[in-house]
Amino acid sequence: MRGFGIIEDTRKVVYMEWIKPQKLAAGDTVAAVSLSGGRAGDADMLARYALGKQRLEQIFGLRVAAPTHSLKGSDFLYRNPKARADDLMEALREPCIKGIFLSMGGDDGIRLLPHIDFTVIRQNPKVFIGFSDGDTFHRMFSYAGVVSFYGANLLATLAEPGELNSYTIQWIRKALFTSEAIGELTSCDAWTGINWNNSLQKREIPWEENAGHVLHQGKGKVRGHIMTACGGPLRSVMGTCLFPPPDMWENSIICLEEMEIYGSRLAAVHGMRALAAAGIFRQCGAVLLPRSDESFIRDVILKVLHEEGLFDLPVLSGVAFGHMNPMAVLPIGVAAEIDCDLRTFTVLESGVWD
Questions:
Q1: Which of 180, 204, 219 is the endpoint of a domain?
Q2: Which of 96, 139, 260, 345 could be a cystine partner for 242, CB 3.0 to 4.6 Å?
Q3: Which residues of 323-348 are buried (b: 16+ CB within 10 A; e: fewer)?
Q4: In a shared domain, residues 145 and 200
Q5: Full residue range of the structural domain in which residue 328 is found
């Protein structure tokens, strides 16, 4: 699988092979980084941070380290994007750190761009996992040609009130701890939203039954590499070096979410049209969506695709990723397949090596 990357010491962008990070194992040390929102270090979130850390330790057998600035709180980290970038560089350079978990999303990850050394990412490939504004940092890893993972954040997912869902545990293990092909992402039985209530012993957001994977258009089988596209973060990198070029979208399976920013369907249509104008839907092989909201898919996703004349582009929804619980893990840059007849989504290889 070919990716985008940079030549050491030149900053010149060239085509090169995607690099996979080494898999995690019990006993490894991982860093919990605050690259976007800094709530992990705020007084009212310290118990939640401790719960997420505890679950990484007890369920997955990992040790958790906090880079220099990661627990300095929202105010400090908002004012100091370079400190956040320094934490990422520190975690990548430190040999004892084997993986990096994003603490939470936010809205200003793009402010780190001037302080990122992409050669450090490419020369030190490590598991990097997170979602939401984490997609900004996935763009950085993709720019450096390194596979990264769209999945659980420490605060929003791993520190979920009550118990950590077994589906989430299953896919973290499959994606990060084994070099075997990840395989078919079966649908979860039920889903719910992100619960930020600090009463960590119970859940107050109701669960909804999952109808399973739903095919909205398309036929046959489509194979391509996984590309994630979280609406706000993806639009924030447009016009920068981080926005993937046409070759990176070509024949990809785009895992698209959070287009309806702040609940605005009009914003979602504008966002879809911006991405359509950038050509990504004409270049990709299929579109994958999370929860199956029929009216949203009809009035936003299909509306814009049909404006572009894309009546046959496969669109499959109901896949557990992004802003929901439980969630699977998507390895970016890795080969996958949609079978429209069976309504299945299968990751054909591993995103890590032994």
A1: 180
A2: 139
A3: bbbbbbbbbbbbbbbbbbeeebbbbe
A4: no
A5: 190-347
